[in-house]
């Protein structure tokens, strides 16, 4: 019987394990995550302690887990995932998040979340795209980690302009009051998932909403954090 090989999304060489998506060579060659604050994800001199920014003005979450800066080759995969109707990339990108979360879990003693949430996409954009990319990532991670995924917990209650090209202040203003949480998450350990965190305005808006709900802890997970 012939073995059926998939191909690495980056170098296109055959994979012995199709579910990996990226071969071991390309995985080793991915850009190393720079030294960054474990809470906000921005550059810092100590990856185990919050940076000065977080000590002065803590973000509304306890940890931010990401794979790398928004740069090649992951930026290309994310664009393909989001804009070129390639949902098959979801398990590959979710696996990268999982590997970095497991490392952070060991080093920072992060709580294993009870519930995973995904940043909701506007209905029109979801219809045009055919799927919410964050939803696809969250489904894989919830299954692998044995967490509960609640896709209906968060909703966008008004349309917003695209965030691309807006400065940080405009992004915050654009998203104010755009989300609603329809489930009681008080006392729960939660992970909030997005594909890319740029200024952090989107996840911060949802995080404040979850804070008001009284979640026990909140982690932000993403593929890339723009540095």
How large a portion of the residues is in β-strands, by DSSP E?
A: 5-15%
Give the spatial strand order of the biggest sheet: 3-10-8-4-5
Mean pLDDT: 90
**Rg computed from alpha carbons, rounded to a whole number of angstroms:** 17 Å
| Structural category | alpha/beta
Estimate the global geometry from the Cα principal axes: globular
| Poorly predicted runs | none
Q: What oligomeric state best describes the polypeptide chains here?
A: single chain
Tell me what you see in this structure:
The structure is a single chain. The protein has 227 residues and is of the alpha/beta class. The model has no long low-confidence stretch (mean pLDDT 90). The protein is 36% helix and 15% strand. A 5-stranded parallel sheet has the order 3-10-8-4-5, sandwiched between helices.
Key features?
two-stranded antiparallel ribbon; 227 residues; five-stranded parallel beta sheet; alpha/beta
Blueprint (SSEs and pairs):
Layout: E1 6-7, E2 14-15, H1 24-29, H2 52-56, E3 63-65, H3 74-83, H4 90-108, E4 115-118, H5 123-129, H6 133-145, E5 148-149, E6 154-156, H7 168-175, E7 179-181, E8 189-193, E9 196-197, H8 201-213, E10 217-221, E11 224-225
Helix pairs in contact: 4-6
In short:
The chain has 227 residues and is an alpha/beta fold. The chain has 8 helices and 11 strands.
